[in-house]
Amino acid sequence: MIRLISAILLVTPSFFSLADSNIVNNLSYVGIGYKQARLDAEAMSPYLDGKYVNDEAKSYGGLYINLGFNVTEQFFVDGYADFITRFSSEVDTWRVGGGYNILVQDRVSFPVSCGIVNYRADSDYSSSFSDNAGYCKAGVRGQVASHWLIDASYQHEAFDVSKDTINITNVFQFGSVFGLVAGFEFSERKESERSFNLGVQFSM
After folding, report:
1. Neighbours of 48 (CB within 10 A)
2. pTM (2 decimals)?
3. Which tens digits make up the pLDDT trace of 102-116?
4. Which residues are bridge partners to 14 per DSSP?
5. What distance in Å separates the CA atoms of residue 120 and residue 192, rounded to the nearest whole number?
6. Are 181 and 170 in contact (CB under 8 A)?
7. Which H or E run contains 9?
8. At 198, phi and psi to the nearest 5?
9. DSSP 3-state assignment of 8?
10. Which tens digit of pLDDT belongs to each residue from 67-88?
11. N or C: which end of the chain has fewer CB within 10 A?
């Protein structure tokens, strides 16, 4: 029994050392999860080229996947896709880009990136519409605790009806690979859009 307790005491510090992982500067990952969104009245209009206007706020649900890859220690590429749907309409999104992660210290970095974003919308009340534009994003990543990373960003999408988004993502990291994700997003296009997501993330 004494030997067993001694072995546990020896292994425990090693386990927590592994679990105390800092992923601020690691932008190689794959994430997947659930997304819930609420679009205010008239918010669907630009996604359907003005051919349909929702006269009241509507809620949507769907799935998302995102991924990133460190090309070098500071240069990275990333991608994102999701779909949100309800009985009568759906919005699909994909985004791909590349950027540079400005390393301030071990616990803080400032990633900036640009790329292309596409939306495709379908509705029972109008024809489908797809549109893409350039975007740029800037943010800050901070390791606020041993197992907790906060990633906050601002993104501008240069559509004819432009879109601005503030995103705050929490990653609760367990070891160097597995993490739980909870994010919140507020967007302004023609009208306001709000969403949250829950998922998992695997760092590489």
Report:
1. 22
2. 0.87
3. 999 889 999 999 999
4. none
5. 18
6. yes
7. helix 2-19
8. -130, 130
9. helix
10. 999 999 999 999 999 999 998 9
11. N
For the record, the structure tokens of 174 come out as: 């367990």
Instruction: Report which DSSP code applies to 117.
Output: E
Residue 181, both tokens: 């994700």
| Residue whose token pair is 């105390």 | 20
Asked whether 139 and 151 are in contact (CB, 8 A), the reply is: yes
Residue with the two structure tokens 């990543």: 141
DSSP for 47-74, written as a single string: GGTTS---SS-EEEEEEEEEEEEESSSS
Determine the Cα–Cα distance for residues 166 and 135; give it in Å rounded to an integer.
13
Residues 6+ apart with CB under 8 A from 164: 154, 155, 156, 157, 187, 188, 189
Helix or strand holding residue 95 (H, E): strand 89-105
DSSP 46: G
Of 1-5, 141-145, 160-164, which gets the smallest average pLDDT?
A: 1-5
Residue 124 falls in which region: left (phi positive, over 0), alpha (psi -120 to 50) or beta = alpha
Tell me: pLDDT of 141 over 80.
yes
